[in-house]
From TrEMBL:
All copies of domain PGG, residue ranges: 575-686
Keywords: Membrane, Transmembrane, Transmembrane helix
PANTHER family, sorted: ANKYRIN REPEAT-CONTAINING PROTEIN NPR4-LIKE ISOFORM X1, CASKIN
Record's keyword annotation contains Transmembrane helix: yes
Segments passing through the bilayer: 585-605, 620-642, 662-688, 694-713
A Pfam family this chain is assigned to: Retrotran_gag_2
Classification lineage: Eukaryota, Viridiplantae, Streptophyta, Embryophyta, Tracheophyta
Keyword Repeat found: no
Identification of the protein by name: PGG domain-containing protein
Organism: Nelumbo nucifera (Sacred lotus)
Length: 733
């Protein structure tokens, strides 16, 4: 415990001493004239008000006092909060709810222990062996054995059969034995379905953890009140299903939820929204946001729904890396989001409707022409057939639906926050951190919504005084960088010349890229080329004076780049030399073979004239041309690789010089291999065509294999080098 916190309270805040801590901390804040900030007698003025600076100073002092007097566990709940009032409320809710849960669990353990003693006797856990047969039957889903046991021991139907006071229904539900649960529900009275175990969970709670939709339907049909029962942690079955990502059960329960149920408490609604986002159920999250708009600005453990969404880059189109064919399918498939309607209870789907569901909606529509209905039906039938023929279409279509839903969810969250919160400072606190996090992951959709609804947010600084352009450069997010350059917004992002470590934007470009971004490029040499490209582009963007500025370690940007990338330079040199050495050996072998073949022509030469016997044959001309081309191209290739081996390997060499040499060397090596195989084919054709034509054709066809294999193995690397060296690369100017 620090000396500062000792001066305020006797011991730091934990779950066990909240009552004492609250009294001491309140007295301290009153004595320092800071309590008005916490109880909101001193309300936050507008940012342009002259009194705002004084209020912010007092708020910071009060918040610091609260945070420094917290233990490690308690501090984790308030470390991201910027308001002393919010921190005080957060700690109160956390400690009181935790204490209440602890007390209730303790009391329940005592009462359940007493109850088990009354039912099973005083021999403790040994009496549970009486129900071992029933437990095993529920575990394995053996209903016949369980039914015989229950007939002999009727009290076992609702008795706790393990140390956690689970009933047979609890056990079967948790292990997903659907038929067992359905049969057991039939013979249980409705009120017995609500029996809770030692932690307050009903069997319906356990269905949401490991059960099926059929179980949920059977139990909820018999006792609808199960939907509203909370366990001792205050968790409802709906929230539990979202927490455990049981999508089939979750979709059924959400469909049963009324607006009143979803709006019971703002905390529950916000927690449900966060869990729906975590479970990738963006359709239901959209529907919940429509029905409970205020959850957009509500914190859950110090974070909003936008904070959680900003850490899910795969949910957005801008961060997906489809292959060539998947990109074509993605642009071709048609996906529409269902419209929201409170009247017909139709909520957003997280998977596209099946053909049967679409057919029902088509047949139920009386406002469309018969021709349109027929076309809709044919369209749905066509999609079913295509998905059977090409299974990847279904996954691409599902991904596109998720991308559309995630984008719309971000847009609605932005709009709801701006409608609910009028204070600009609070808006920035709600939208700024998610934008910074989304920039780190390269989610362009967040930036687009920012420019559309709240453009001033692009100047929002993070904890290190870095705006989104700085964050994009530091994390090598080229799509964010390009989007800012395209809109011209980068010119306005020089408000913060330096971060708290005195790094300007050129220093950030000089730092080594994060591993996940660096590994997107194969080979240390190409990784260094990418880093050099980033540094050169940012160098053009930054004012010339930035090149001479030093950071807190006394390093200029160029020197910082050399320090950060010295290992990458060494690895790039090794990679280049190993690649060049291997290719040099291959090129030298081809030179030797082709040089020898030029003087040992197929069929020999005429003894009297010295001319080749097949000099008039077309195949012989192919032999001569391909042999000469193979010799020249392999010689060029070997010279390129030798120049790589003798290079000085300076940093700037990796930007253009070395990649260009490697590109030429690999291209010439490929041409020499292709020409060598052509030479071989023409020789076979000359020697065997007249007598064994079929064999010559087969052997000639097999010669394509090594050429194709070399192309497939080296083509991705070759394309990357050409793209990054000669193309627009990762930047679009």
């Amino acid at each position: 415990m620090s000396s500062l916190s000792k001066a305020m309270v006797r011991e730091v805040l934990t779950y066990d001493n909240y009552d004492d801590w609250k009294i001491l901390m309140k007295n301290y804040l009153v004595g320092k004239n800071l309590w008005g900030i916490v109880d909101e007698t001193e309300r936050e003025p507008p940012t342009d008000d002259p009194s705002y600076a004084a209020w912010r100073e007092k708020n910071s002092k009060a918040l610091h006092a609260i945070q420094i007097s917290c233990g490690t566990d308690m501090f984790s709940h308030v470390k991201k909060l910027s308001s002393a009032r919010e921190a005080w409320k957060c700690l109160a809710n956390e400690c009181m709810s935790a204490w209440g849960r602890s007390r209730k669990i303790t009391e329940t353990l005592s009462s359940q222990s007493q109850k088990m003693k009354e039912v099973l006797g005083d021999d403790g856990g040994e009496s549970l062996s009486k129900y071992r047969i029933l437990y095993n039957a529920a575990f394995y889903g053996d209903w016949k054995t369980a039914k015989r046991f229950i007939d002999k021991h009727p009290e076992a139907l609702t008795a706790g059969i393990d140390n956690w006071s689970k009933t047979a229904l609890h056990v079967a539900a948790f292990f997903g034995n659907t038929n067992f649960v359905v049969e057991l529900v039939k013979i249980l009275p409705p009120e017995k379905l609500a029996i809770q175990n030692l932690v307050g969970s009903t069997a319906f709670h356990l269905v949401t953890e490991g059960g099926t939709r059929k179980m949920a339907e059977a139990m909820l049909e018999k006792n609808p009140g199960l939907f509203h029962i909370r366990d001792f942690n205050g968790i409802t079955p709906l929230l539990s299903a979202a927490n455990f990502c049981r999508k089939d059960v979750l979709q059924y329960l959400y469909g049963c939820a009324t607006d009143a149920c979803l709006n019971s408490t703002i905390e529950d609604s916000a927690a449900l929204l966060v869990h729906l986002i975590a479970a990738d159920c963006y359709g239901m999250a959209l529907d919940l946001l429509h029905r409970c708009p205020e959850v957009a600005s509500t914190h859950v453990n110090g974070e909003t729904a936008l904070d959680f969404l900003a850490r899910k880059p795969y949910a957005f189109k801008s961060r997906n890396r489809f292959g060539f064919w998947h990109r074509q399918i993605y642009s071709w498939v048609h996906v529409e989001l269902p419209t929201h309607s409170h009247t017909d209870k139709k909520f957003y789907k997280d998977e596209e409707d099946s053909l049967e569901e679409e057919q029902v909606s088509i047949n139920g529509s009386h406002q469309r022409s018969s021709t349109h209905l027929v076309l809709c039906y044919i369209n749905q039938l066509l999609w079913i057939v295509l998905q059977r023929i090409v299974p990847s279409i279904k996954s691409v279509r599902k991904s596109k639906l998720m991308h559309l839903q995630a984008r719309e969810l971000v847009e609605h969250l932005f709009k709801n926050v701006l409608m609910a919160v009028k204070n600009d400072h609070k808006v920035e606190k709600l939208l700024g951190p998610p934008l910074i996090a989304a920039t780190e992951f390269g989610i362009v959709e967040f930036l687009e919504m920012t420019l559309k609804y709240y453009p001033r947010l692009i100047e929002y600084p993070d904890a290190n005084l870095r705006c989104i352009l700085h964050v994009a450069v530091l994390n090598r997010q080229e799509m964010i960088f390009n989007h800012l350059k395209k809109t011209g917004r980068h010119l306005a992002l020089r408000t913060f010349d330096r971060d708290i470590y005195l790094n300007n934007i050129l220093h950030l470009a000089a730092k080594l890229a994060p591993p996940q971004q660096l590994n997107c490029v194969s080979g240390a040499a190409l990784q260094l080329q990418r880093e050099l490209q980033w540094f050169k582009v940012v160098e053009k963007l930054a004012p010339p004076k930035y090149r001479e500025w030093k950071n807190s370690h006394g390093l200029k940007p160029q020197l910082l780049f050399s320090e950060e990338h010295k290992d990458l330079v060494a690895n790039g040199e090794v990679w280049m030399k190993e690649t060049a050495t291997s290719c040099t050996v291959a090129a030298a072998l081809i030179i030797t073979i082709m040089f020898a073949a030029a003087f040992t022509v197929p069929g020999g030469i005429q003894s009297d004239t010295g001319n080749p016997i097949f000099v008039t044959s077309k195949s012989f001309m192919v032999f001569v041309i391909s042999d000469a081309f193979a010799l020249f191209s392999s010689s060029t290739s070997m010279l390129m690789f030798l120049s790589i081996l003798t290079s000085r390997y300076a940093e700037d060499d990796f930007l253009k010089s070395l990649p260009q040499k490697l590109i030429i060397g690999l291209a010439m090596l490929f041409f020499s291999i292709a020409a060598m195989m052509t030479t071989f084919c023409s020789t076979i054709f000359i020697m065997l065509c007249s007598r064994l034509r079929l064999i010559s054709i087969v052997l000639t066809s097999l010669a394509v294999v090594p050429v194709t294999l070399f192309a497939f193995l080296q083509f991705p690397l070759f394309i990357d080098m050409v793209f990054y060296t000669y193309g627009s690369g990762i930047f679009r100017y």
